[in-house]
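Work Package 3 (structural annotation) set out to generate three-dimensional models for the target panel prioritized at the project kickoff. During this period the team completed the workflow that converts sequence records into discrete structure tokens, so that structures can be stored uniformly alongside our sequence database. As a representative example, we reproduce one entry of 384 residues exactly as it appears in the project archive.
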Amino acid sequence: MPSRPPRGGIEAVSAAVLAMNRRLEVREVLQTIVGSARELLAAEYAALGVPDDHGGFAQFVVDGVSDEEWKAIGPLPRQHGILAAMLHEATPQRLDDVRDFPSFAGWPRRHPLMKDFIGMPVMDGEDILGALFLANKICPTRPEAGSHGFTQDDEDLLRILADHAAIALTNARLYERSRELTLAGERARIAHELHDAVSQKLFSLRLTAQAAAALIDTDPARAKGQLREVAGLAAEAADELRAVVVELRPAALDDDGLVATLRTQAEVLDRVHSAGVTFRARDVRALPASQEEALLRVAQEAMHNALRHAHASAVTITLEGRGKGARLRISDDGRGFDPGSVRRAGRHLGLVSMRDRAGGVGGTLTVQSAPGKGTVIELEVPGG
């Protein structure tokens, strides 16, 4: 007989949806997802890691470990062993004993003992955003028996929750962008677009999860059908969130033009960040609207990466005319990265989006970077 989630478990999925529907800080959203996963699968420990591009984690949240225990464990984990397998191969993992994994290399001295394990990559299309993983399944009918292994049903439910995590990460990124753009006068526009794009979908998602909760004890088969619908709605909501980010044209471009918009955003970022952000423009002609938007979006993505991920102390944006077209150059002195390994790992700091934007307007994008050497991104467009 297949196992069933504990009472209240599906309500945890609904709680995660509600958390994503509120304008919360990313850490709070991720913590809600981790707590929901631990409750839903009746696990002793749960965690969600968002990787950086240097072999570690940009964010790592846990549930089931006290603050004192967490501090005693020491530094954040690195991307090795089973974590690397999930992050680099995009494959779920379900093990009776994590210590039997071929590349398992032990834990820090104060790390809690873990045995049975389940992990699920958090995917946005083909991109790996992070990984959810849980350890030590607790038997609800015989808690004194301790851990007794995760099931295929657990894996199916965790896959659904990973869809929620993808929405949460996309939503948090959009929210972070909206706060920066607020300082440049665009928050109201993005908030309106976000509400129109996803609020109805998230409302439907919540109702479907609640329907599954009502059926879980009386009609498990129908409840599974409702959960499959939850997964579909989650994927649609993630697509619509991405569409908001991709399609939204800043009003400042129409009102002020590309040079003034870039100068304003650079000045705002220079004020709100400790890093120095400078902008220079020379001999820039009017360009087709699509090319101006591509230049602005690539500049925004590159500045965001330099300030938020590369921890640069200086960022320089240069826009200059090139015949009928223009060339944009964004350079920083941050941590840098290996573009080849980043692409193979499925995490590309928006590089795929940048290349798509360049290709969509007949432009050419080049990226130069290396660990510890900073980054230079150039986009040249042909003009009209």
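DSSP finds twelve helices and ten strands in the chain.
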